[in-house]
Design brief:
mainly alpha
């Protein structure tokens, strides 16, 4: 029996290295999301309890100092990620689901495809800030739900175009034509024939929609559309504490770094889980 060659050993190590690299990219996102979800249980002070002087520097009672009302910045930071991540996950899940269903049906039904394409073209032209403001004005008491609704409405058209573009080559495949010849319904063909071959695209799309939702919800919070004081929201913390950035920079820098770290880590995680071809299709569509 011949000894294994160096080429075969390298081939054996390659899958293990790929899994290690994927795990290394996924781990920061998972840790940050987990920390944000359990953050309220780790906070030392209530979010509305003053513990220091306004904009006090970092000290023993407040590791990141105080905000404009003397509340503990670290405690508010630990509370501020739960609602943001929950809202972003909801937006990403709904947008990905709607886009997957509409995109698959659009390539199988030409009339529906044209209608979806024209509607998407019109809605894509609407700037995100304007769309959020319009929905917030039409739903003045909606708060965070109004922002979530705006993010879903603004994100779905672009995502539909991506899924439809990825599903279009598959609609002419032999197994789809065979299912059509057998008299299968559009729902069966979309769910059983197209969708299993779009897993990589859907996974990459979900990650990118999550990152976009984080930015949209954060932008709305900075504009005070959605969560209102005294809510602990990372974007709202930046807006509230901006006047005192020279007195206590951590009151502004810490929530800004949290938003950036969340978006970057989740983006890297989704990029490592999806094949390169799917990532290229999603980012260039």
């Amino acid at each position: 029996m011949s000894a294994p060659t160096s080429t075969s050993l390298a081939a054996d190590r390659r899958p293990g290295r790929a899994r290690y690299r994927a795990l290394r990219r996924v781990a920061p996102g998972l840790i940050l999301v987990l920390l944000a979800l359990i953050g309220p249980y780790l906070a030392a002070h209530p979010i509305d309890q003053p513990v220091t002087a306004p904009f006090a520097p970092a000290g023993d009672g407040a590791p990141l100092g105080g905000d404009q009302l003397g509340r503990d910045v670290l405690s508010r930071l630990l509370h501020g990620g739960t609602a943001l991540i929950g809202s972003a996950l909801l937006v990403a899940a709904v947008v990905t689901l709607l886009a997957t269903l509409l995109g698959c049906f659009a390539v199988l039904h030409p009339a529906l495809g044209r209608a979806v394409e024209r509607t998407a073209d019109v809605l894509i032209l609407l700037p995100p800030v304007l769309g959020i403001m319009l929905i917030a004005l039409a739903w003045p008491g909606g708060g965070r739900w109004a922002v979530v609704g705006a993010a879903i409405a603004l994100g779905t058209p672009y995502a539909v175009r991506i899924v439809a573009g990825a599903a279009a080559p598959l609609a002419n495949a032999g197994y789809v034509e065979a299912a059509t010849a057998r008299g299968e319904t559009l729902r069966y063909i979309a769910v059983r024939e197209l969708l299993p071959n779009l897993r990589a695209t859907v996974l990459a799309l979900f990650g990118l929609r999550f990152v976009e939702a984080v930015y949209i919800i954060s932008m709305a919070g900075f504009l005070q559309i959605g969560p209102q004081p005294p809510a602990a929201d990372w974007a709202l913390m930046i807006r509230e504490n901006a006047p005192g950035i020279l007195l206590n920079p951590w009151a502004v820098v810490a929530p800004g770094l949290a938003i950036a770290a969340l978006a970057i880590s989740v983006n890297l995680a989704s990029a490592s889980l999806a094949p390169r071809s799917a990532r290229k299709a999603v980012t260039t569509s």
